[in-house]
Design a protein that fits this description.
- Two copies of one chain form a homodimer.
- Chain A is an alpha+beta fold.
- Chain A has a single domain, classed as Alpha-Beta Plaits (2-Layer Sandwich), CATH 3.30.70.930.
- Chain A has helices at 22-32, 53-68, 124-138, 155-168; strands at residues 9-17, 39-42, 47-51, 74-82, 109-118, 141-145, 148-154, 177-185.
- In chain A, strands 2-3-1-4-8-5-7-6 form an eight-stranded antiparallel sheet.
- In chain A, α2 packs antiparallel against α4 (155-168).
- The longest helix of chain A has 16 residues, at 53-68.
- The interface between A and B is large, with 57 and 57 residues.
- Chains A, B: InterPro entries: HMP/thiamine-bd, MTH1187/YkoF-like, Thiamin/HMP-bd_put_YkoF.
- Chains A, B: One of its GO terms (molecular function) is thiamine binding.
- Chains A, B: It comes from Psychrobacillus soli.
């Protein structure tokens, strides 16, 4: 098996609106988001998007933001992946340019948690500690916890951190990287900023 | 750093009822589940339980089953972890016996997806392929997909598979194992068994 032959980034996620109208929240977010720069497929448990990193993160953020703007309590959980040796070259739109399709800058507080899994890298704990430091430097670190780190702030700052850390936590030598993200928005449990 | 000094297994998860009554569904599931065999902590994004593997899986299943029995569309997403070198020895109930506290055998169809991340193991892809074969042998395999594998069936069979695969995908030599699980129940999107 050969590792990391393509620059495909993928994100498998579920958007969970905690409301009886969950279907209309999800469909509305999909309608308001320009997903033309990514390949997308939905099944009965989750949705996967694939393409250039810049577009995968842009679409993930836009879908989340549009769902959040309904005012409903919504949660996003998902896994970003790149460089998996079992991956195929198909189902990705790598011929797209680098201009993002979604540019809504509406502010939205999000509280989230993430974990990095750099695969087949003996120094993976160093990568994790370095990226947690990056979160602190960027002002989005919330708290330490078992199995994850808390990241919060404005949705644009939080997604910018996630995209930056996903870039820096993988390398030519260690191409297979996994990052899980769990995000909560408009929750009655948030302490806020 | 030393790896895997303790037998602590952890599960950080969120339970998402897609209903306006999400708070009562979550609180009800917590009330009906005996969580006395695990350490538990909830924050504004997720809940973490820690303890012996048998109890962590038993409590995870019971919480999910009780939420499912409301008939609402509920989703579970979470990460099982063991052997993390950054883990601490605290916050775990390892002095408990092996008798599980929750024994409700009500049948419930669940559709789910999982991914295994054996850390710092050059042969991790072999582990993953072997465990997918196990799902097929046990009759819970649903379908292949990017970044995950589909697992479905009765909740008890599905959790039995997850516990078994979590046991077999780690070893004395490779102690740090992560397994993500995303589960959907009572969904209008399910094709069913």
């Amino acid at each position: 098996m050969q590792c990391g032959l393509s620059p495909i980034v993928g994100f498998r996620f579920s958007l969970h609106p905690m409301t009886n109208d969950f279907i209309s929240v999800i469909k509305g977010a999909l309608q308001e988001t320009d997903t033309s720069n990514v390949w997308m497929h939905t099944d009965d448990v989750s949705t996967v998007i694939r393409g250039k990193q810049v577009h995968v993160f842009n679409v993930a953020k836009a879908l989340t933001l549009h769902a959040a703007k309904t005012g409903e309590h919504v949660a996003l959980s998902g896994t970003f992946s790149a460089g998996c040796p079992g991956d195929t070259s198909g189902d990705a739109y790598l011929d797209k340019g680098d201009n993002v399709a979604n540019t809504d800058t509406t502010k939205q507080y999000v509280s989230s948690q993430f974990a990095l899994y750099p695969m087949n890298n003996p120094n993976y704990m160093d990568v994790i500690y370095r990226e947690v430091e990056r979160a602190k430097e960027l002002g989005v670190f919330n708290e330490s916890m078992h199995y994850a780190s808390g990241i919060h702030g404005d949705i644009h700052d939080v997604f910018a951190f996630y995209e930056e850390t996903f870039t820096h936590a993988r390398s030519e030598e260690h191409k297979h990287l996994v990052m899980t993200v769990s995000m909560s928005i408009n929750s009655p449990s948030h302490g806020g900023l």
